[in-house]
Amino acid sequence: MLAQFSSLVTVESSALGARVRFLALKVLHQRSRQYGPVSDNPVSQDLGKLFSRTTFPMPVDFNVRSVLSRSPRKGSIRVLSVTPRTYQRFLWILAFGLNSGSVLQAQVRERMVIATDVVCRTRPEFSAPRAHMYELGDIAGVTNESKGEGGSWYFDQWRVSGQSPSCWVYGPLTADFAESNPGPALLALMDHLLQRPNAARFEDYVAVENLLMEARFSSLVMSSGLLRFRRLTIIHRAISREDARGHMIDKDPLKKAWVLSHKDVVYYFEIGDEWRMRPETYWSLFEQYKEAPWAEDLAWAAAQLPLSGDECYADCLLERINKTFLQYWTRFPKGYAIDQALTKAAQIAEDAANIACFDKDPNYSVSRPLLTNIRNNLMEVTAPAKSQLLKFIDQIELKCYSDQK
């Protein structure tokens, strides 16, 4: 019901009292009428209850068609159209709030629900009756904190009603939220999912990614390199699941529709019956944010993505090194994952050395410039693990070009 509101009223004044609350409530009531007659309109009924328990210095006329222009001696009233937060916080402020001072100074902390299937309970303990079921991304209006079962619990004043006079939500399933800067809350939401891969369902990844692409957050996500990187990680985790293999996705039209809607960043590898991420998406993002503190994480993630291919002989195997791990150590020759990159590259090079130039078959030939490129791009690397990789490069060169100067 409250979520239907697309605008709300803000009141600004240096001296606010009942007269200001009267006009603000009247505006809310006027806007609520578009949702149905007062007799069966739950929004109007809620407002009526607020009117009935608030003392005003003037009669309340539910039938006025315009808001009278009234100004307190030391303040003013403005009706603004803003982004939707429904009108929950204003109902709370006006119902329980201030007889003087600024309405906007009410001590309400906002926290975002960062998990699916979250509920608030009548007491700060898991065994207490459920009072309300949240949607992922809902905002709670917190007015109290309690150290209850399992840690911190927050009292959500915005979900309090006659039927649910108490609403405690478990703290670790929420994150601090600021409408002016929602980025940290979105990062907390994504990290909460990524840190529990064994418990997460395919639907959880979809729910988080869908939230990121909602109108209220999409522009921020697409303008933030870090949020874009995390979004790619969410998509990658989703399509890498066993229940996201091609033949499984084909059985579920909704899952398939979601995957196909991301074909700008994913592709289907038929031989493996799996959906894969496009490495160029990662490297393109890296080039835009190569100086960012998280840039190396992005490069390492890109380097580990599998490449498409059918039968792969020596030259093909070396090309995989060139397009994956070499791209990482070229950019970060002393990076935190340099040993892993060199070890994985050496394993591929060993396979290439075993079949390189076998029986002089052209299929097993190796491009000498490719060998030279790998060798040259190791010059800045000082990690001892590079010696094993160079050993296999030397073996390949000896097998294929020993008769050439």
Describe this structure in words.
The protein is an alpha+beta fold and 405 residues long. It folds into 4 domains: 2-104, no CATH class; 109-176, SH3 type barrels (Roll); 182-277, no CATH class; 313-405, no CATH class. Helices cover 43% and strands 10% of the residues. It is built from 16 helices and 9 strands. It has helices spanning 18-32, 42-52, 88-96, 183-194, 202-212, 215-223, 225-239, 246-249, 253-260, 279-288, 295-303, 314-323, 325-331, 338-355, 368-376, 386-401; strands at residues 109-113, 119-121, 130-133, 139-148, 151-156, 168-170, 174-176, 266-269, 274-277. The strands form 2 sheets. The chain has a 7-stranded antiparallel β-sheet, with helices on one face. A two-stranded antiparallel sheet has the order 8-9. Strand 2 (119-121) and strand 3 (130-133) form a beta hairpin. It is elongated. Mean pLDDT is 80; it is low at 1-23, 31-44, 50-87 and 91-106.
- What is the subunit arrangement here? single chain
- Percentage of residues in strands: 5-15%
DSSP, total strands = 9
Instruction: Flag low-confidence runs.
Output: 1-23, 31-44, 50-87, 91-106
Structural class assignment: alpha+beta
The backbone outline, from C-alpha atoms, is elongated
Mean pLDDT reading: 80
Distance between the termini: 81 Å
Largest sheet: 7 strands, antiparallel
Rg, alpha carbons: 30 Å
Count of discrete domains? 4
Count the helices. How many?
16
What string gives the helices and strands in order? HHHEEEEEEEHHHHHHEEHHHHHHH
Q: Strands of the largest sheet, in order across it?
A: 3-2-6-5-4-1-7
Approximate helicity band: 40-55%
